[in-house]
Structures are given as structure tokens and as C-alpha cells.
Design brief:
The chain is built from 5 helices and no strands. By secondary structure, the chain is an all-alpha fold. The chain has 2 domains: about 1-95, no CATH class; about 95-125. It is globular, with a radius of gyration of 17 Å.
Length: about 130
Amino acid sequence: MAFNILLVAIGGAMGSAARYLSALAATRLFGPAFPWGTLFVNLFGSFLMGVVVEVLARRFDASNELRLLLAVGVLGGFTTFSSFTLEAAVLAERGSLALAFAYVAGSVLLGLSALFAGLALARSLA
């Protein structure tokens, strides 16, 4: 268990650093008017999650430790959006389209609502 946590932590640090560098590069290239870095990270991370899941799990029957390092750690640190899209795709592939749609819509709408609630709370306390 402790070794698995270490693998996720190491991978997460690598992914977080890559996310920061990607966002920094995008801001320098395109300016701060639009969150290009976050868009890139979310889309590229989702693409990589598809590749990693297919290659590691289905093609090479890779170890759980390698999956933890790469999928949960590196890509989870790079973007949790990749985990979100994988979870939605798994629901859809299992035939639970309504549940997949509810998960996506609920995550986005409730996530935005939670953010605004947090902003309102913090602003009221300041």
C-alpha cells in the first residue's frame, strides 16, 4: 500500500510539473486572454489517458504498479480531466449512456456551482 502511494506521488509530481510547464508555455506563446494551457492539458491528457489505458491494460497486460504510476500518478497530476473523461467513457461503453451524461453534466454544472459558492463564501468572510 505504501509503495503504491509512493508511485502515485512520484507520478503526480511529474504530471503536475508538466502541467505547470505546459500552461506557462501556452501563456507565453498565446497570451493570458484565454486559458489555452488548460485547454491543451485537458485535451492532450485525455488523449494520453486513452492511449495509456489501451496500451497498458488491454495490449500488454501491464502491472498494477505501472498503471498507478502512469495513469493515476502522471496523468492524474497532469490533469484530473483525463480521469473524468475516462470515467465517463467507461460508463458509456458499459451501456450506461444516461448515467454517463448525468455524470458529465453534473460534474460540470455542480462543479461550477461549487466554485461560485466557494467564491461567495470567501468573499463574505473577507
